[in-house]
Hints:
Elements: E1 7-11, H1 16-27, E2 31-36, E3 47-50, H2 56-70, E4 75-78, H3 93-121, E5 124-129, H4 142-162, E6 167-174, H5 180-187, H6 192-201, H7 211-222, E7 233-236
Parallel strand pairs: 1-2, 1-4, 2-3, 4-5, 5-6, 6-7
Helix pairs in contact: 1-7, 2-3, 3-4
Amino acid sequence: xxxxxxxxxxxxxxxxxxxxxxxxxxxxxxxxxxxxxxxxxxxxxxxxxxxxxxxxxxxxxxxxxxxxxxxxxxxxxxxxxxxxxxxxxxxxxxxxxxxxxxxxxxxxxxxxxxxxxxxxxxxxxxxxxxxxxxxxxxxxxxxxxxxxxxxxxxxxxxxxxxxxxxxxxxxxxxxxxxxxxxxxxxxxxxxxxxxxxxxxxxxxxxxxxxxxxxxxxxxxxxxxxxxxxxxxxxxxxxxxxxx
Length: 243
Ligand code: NAD
């Protein structure tokens, strides 16, 4: 019950990693506001919010509602993300901008609207979902790698700006996680079973990560167990980058 009495807002909570974050925060006592483009799938017991993280008004409204109803916002998980599977030549301007709008503008907006409340209460934790793609170059992920690198850089900036105020900001960098997202990427590969086998063969542990394993790391960073941790990125990749 590390989050008993805490108010938590998770974006992208309708599926995969964000769903598991929201479910676990709830399990550990938090009041959870679960934002998604399509909130139909958010965990039962959370407060579902229809939010497009690229749009300032609904993001601001989600933060305001959480604060109005509970009196505080303790934790923000900027988790919603968009994939892009193109190289720098084939990536269109629209693809580039859309990827950055969800992955970067979304993280910026959540942070921008949450911070005034967190600073006023002299307590707040922001956890941004980046990716190993923000740390290394991956083929056919031009906009995705660049946007996740920006999430990591912004996380450090926020951490430094507010260190000493009671506000912490960290990012998590998952490797390949068995969420509906990866299911869609594999389905697009033509022979999904073969593509999955190839993906798994590249993993040092011989398996993909689970959304629960990533959520557990986010909850650690969001908890007071991580009181001295800010401005860092936590890699959860089953040893992939170490190799
Ligand atoms: P997912 O597709 O299962 O879930 C993503 C959720 O985000 C969906 O419910 C979707 O509706 C929501 N979303 C998308 N755009 C949105 C927007 N504009 N506004 C609000 N909600 C929006 O994917 P996932 O695997 O759980 O991914 C979650 C995060 O983890 C993403 O930021 C992704 O980049 C990151 N990530 C995933 C993996 C992986 O292998 N699955 C690896 C590294 C990082």
